[in-house]
Amino acid sequence: MIVQKYKDMLSGKSVIRQLSEFATARGAQIGYENVFDYSLGNPSVPVPQEFTDRMIQMLATRDPMELHGYSPSLGIPSVREAIAANLAERFGLPYEARHIFMTSGAAGAIAHAVRCVTEPGDEVLTFAPFFPEYHPYIDLTGAVLKVVPARVEDFQINFDAFEEMLSAKTMAVLINTPNNPSGIVYSEATIQKLADTLKRKSAEYGHDIFIISDEPYREIVFEGVKNPCVPAYYNNTLMCYSFSKSLSLPGERIGYVAVNPACAEAETLVNMCGQISRGIDHNCPPSIIQLAVAQVLDKTADLSVYETNMNLLYDTLVELGFTVVKPGGTFYIFPKALEEDAKVFCEKALKYDLILVPSDTFGTPGYFRMAYCIDTEKVKRSLEALRRFVETEYGISRKGN
Questions:
Q1: Whole-model pTM?
Q2: Are 59 and 51 in contact (CB under 8 A)?
């Protein structure tokens, strides 16, 4: 007998992936350069040359068993030490190797963090708009994901709704800042209020409530925007990081859980991650990639292209009369659709070879996401297609007309 819950998931495949596949198929017909594919958040800038050089050097000079053998369950000690030292220097918190657990990307980090702090039936709260894969990440652990409605005027946290949804069953709050899909960076005031609320509620309920901070876009923050370090505000924070976006390495699947040194039983939580790996077979990420990223922790890909692309799109969307909150980071923008049904809006856009993602699965109906991690030249060409789309379908040529 096959397992019904996974069979049922076949009818709810990722909309993002489906649209990406459509874009690929359309590209085979007309040339992919003519498809304005804003579906998938796949980094578009090259990996830093330093990373490539380190890989080549290691392959040429180091013992193959060191590079290709299993790593220890918690990760390679020298890598954990390097990451901890980097975090301590950047954020002024006393991270040590014993606070770091190496994972297969941020998804692997979340998989471990959730299992560390929840039992089946416990609740995890997150905030709309949110990454749709949070549902399988959480729900398949036996915990229950509950979504706090969005504060659409700025996509900061809706604290009134949050306080109503907090309960004694709440064991963790999953946050994502800079945020996919909105591009918003939570302000210092937002993080401080979240920390204060959770301290108060933890005391009221008689148990710790953890923040699981999903941070794959931590380095993609635009000029003039401050990105607060969450563990600096709240002791019980599990930071889930990925090098996929900062170094343009999504296919290498490398990240970590960093347990705040001030967290209750911090070292125990890291050791628990090693035991959790035995049950979910999500352990021992590639040794060679661990060793390589540890040598370029002070480097990123050329992330400036994303701010360039954002400004091009934001200015044009505003010109065309869209309601849109300006992103503070990431490579996503999240405008309000020009009609109530975002799915219909995005289906109409397909006629202009604009691949836009409707927002229903992000927990905020009526919007759409554009992943602008594409060549700037292609963004510029897409603007004419966007103008033709809204003028033809909605009679809008510029703001006010």
A1: 0.95
A2: no
The C-alpha angle with vertex 310 and arms to 388 and 104, in degrees rounded to 5, equals 120
Taking a C-beta distance cutoff of 8 angstroms, is the pair 228, 194 a contact?
Answer: no
Band of pLDDT at residue 284, cut at 50, 70 and 90: confident
Residue 4, burial from CB neighbour count under 10 angstroms (0-12, 13-18, 19+): exposed
Partnered with residue 124 across adjacent β-strands are: 145, 172
DSSP string, 234-266: -SSEEEEEESTTTTT-GGG--EEEEE-TTSTTH
What pLDDT shows up at residue 373? 97
Smallest Cα–Cα separation from 247: which of 87, 1, 48?
Answer: 48
Of 10-14, 105-109, 285-289, 306-310, give the lowest mean pLDDT range.
10-14
The Cα 112–Cα 101 span in angstroms is 9
From 3.40.640.10, 3.30.2000.10, 3.40.50.720, 3.30.465.10, which CATH number describes the 49-293 domain? 3.40.640.10
Q: Lowest-confidence range among 49-53, 82-86, 282-286, 306-310?
A: 282-286
Mean pLDDT, residues 379-394 taken together: 97
- At 23 the pLDDT is 82
**CATH number of the 4-47+301-393 domain:** 3.90.1150.10
First-residue to last-residue Cα distance in the chain = 60
Torsion 195-196-197-200 (CA) sign = positive
Q: Are 257 and 231 in contact (CB under 8 A)?
A: no
Assess contact for 39 and 353: CB atoms under 8 A.
Answer: no
Q: What is the mean pLDDT of residues 188-194?
A: 98
Nearest to 107 by CA among 99, 119, 95, 115: 115
Within its chain, how far is the Cα of 255 from the centroid? 12
CA angle 318, 323, 326 (to 5 degrees): 70
Main-chain dihedrals φ then ψ at residue 70, nearest 5 degrees: -60, 140
Domains of the chain, residue spans = 4-47+301-393, 49-293
